[in-house]
Amino acid sequence: MSEEEADLERERKEMVRRQIKGRRIHDELVLEAMRAVPRHRFVPAHVRNSAYRDAPLPIGEGQTISQPYVVAFMTAALQLSGGEKVLEIGTGSGYQAAVLARIVGEVISVERLPRLAEEARRTLAELGYDNVRVVVGDGTQGWPEEAPYDAVIVTAASPEVPAPLLQQLAEGGRLVVPVGPRHTQQLVRVRREGDTFQREGLLGVAFVPLIGEYGWDRRGSVHWGQEEAE
After folding, report:
1. Does any domain span residue 151?
2. Which of 53, 86, 220, 223 has CA 20 to 30 A from 16's CA?
3. Residue 76: CB partners within 8 Å, gap ≥ 6?
4. CATH code assigned at 179
């Protein structure tokens, strides 16, 4: 291990100790995953020195990698025990998918932007995360080909919980998604119980918008299943 890599590993462990465990996240599966995944590999070179700061960072295409605490909080909110099949909406850099992959059996991750999807695939492959499949599509529609899912995580903000994602949850499955206006939202967890969905608010957050048929359109209007005019 190079001196730089050793320094980054120390920063990562300190990140978990102070930013995550220090803020009352005690799920050992989540803590171990956050200690193991090299966040600096998922950010552009010019912000690599900031990889373990408690802040989101730009990754291009107007998108961001979420701050470590939020990644850990959302992962813990899924209440994973290991071995599950998880759907992620909004691959971005691939970091959240990598954290999930350390815990669960299979991750399907949907990304709207082809360039980000390709970069995430490459990074995940280089790091050996072979239980993640990144696909390009409208994440608000989920990925019905592989449904049902034990858990669904959405890493962009929706005006409301996208209906297709609810339908793709397995019995007892959990969905975690930021819901609200474009600039500030509440993180919501939904649990499926038969044909009913129990919803609870968790945390105030601010995410980039979820664009698609059951989210926002590119002009900032609610889409709600309407075809977007070009």
Report:
1. yes
2. 86
3. 25, 27, 30
4. 3.40.50.150
**Residue of 50, 66, 81, 158 marked active site:** 66
Residue 41 lies in a domain: no
- The number of angstroms, rounded, from the C-alpha of 223 to the middle of its chain's C-alpha atoms is 22
What does the block give as tokens for 211? Answer: 């664009």
Using the predicted structure, report yes or no on whether residue 224 has a pLDDT greater than 50: no
Any catalytic annotation for residue 109?
A: no
Q: How do residues 51-109 score in pLDDT, each as one tens digit?
A: 999 999 999 999 999 999 999 999 999 999 999 999 999 999 999 999 999 999 999 99
End-to-end CA distance of the chain: 51
Distances (CA, A) of 218 to 208, 211, 225: 12, 7, 14
Q: Is the pLDDT of residue 47 over 90?
A: yes
What is the extent of the structural domain holding 110? 54-205
